[in-house]
Sequence to fold (172 residues):
Amino acid sequence: LAVGAGTAAALAEAGIGEVQVPDGRPDADALLAMAALRAPVGRHIGVVTAPGGRGQIAETLAHRGALVHVANVYRRVGRAPTARTLARLAALPANSALLVSSAEAFDGLWSRLAEPERVRLRARAAVASSPRLAARLASEGFAALVLADGAAPSALLAALAEDVGRGRFRYD
Fold:
């Protein structure tokens, strides 16, 4: 089982023959709602993850009676933006939007910005890849939030396009 298409592709590339992904949002809640994980009492389940995550999947499965084995096999690392990237960001028009795929990516950017730059970004629409990330952006003062169906660029852009199509934001 995989949370989303990217993980499913990585598992297939590693030789896993049958990989299932949840219908709908590619997130922990959708994964945990899958039939195979609803009543895992006594089953050994491996969770391949990265340190620093919420641990929701392993915790929920253990609560449901599974014998959970966690393997931290990768790290989530935010890249600090270069001076060139920051200059390009500052030059964006006011009607641009901020697409945010991960908290680590956001933190890497946000920590490098002075308050005037943060104020300019807060005035834009922000597209978040998950409800948790949308809440994080709201806590930083973003008011015009759009929720995407995942972290893929296509999902972020589709969510923004849908909101623009509804007339919520004006991009002249």
The chain has a mean pLDDT of 88. Residues 97 and 125 are 5 Å apart (CA to CA). The longest strand covers residues 44-49.
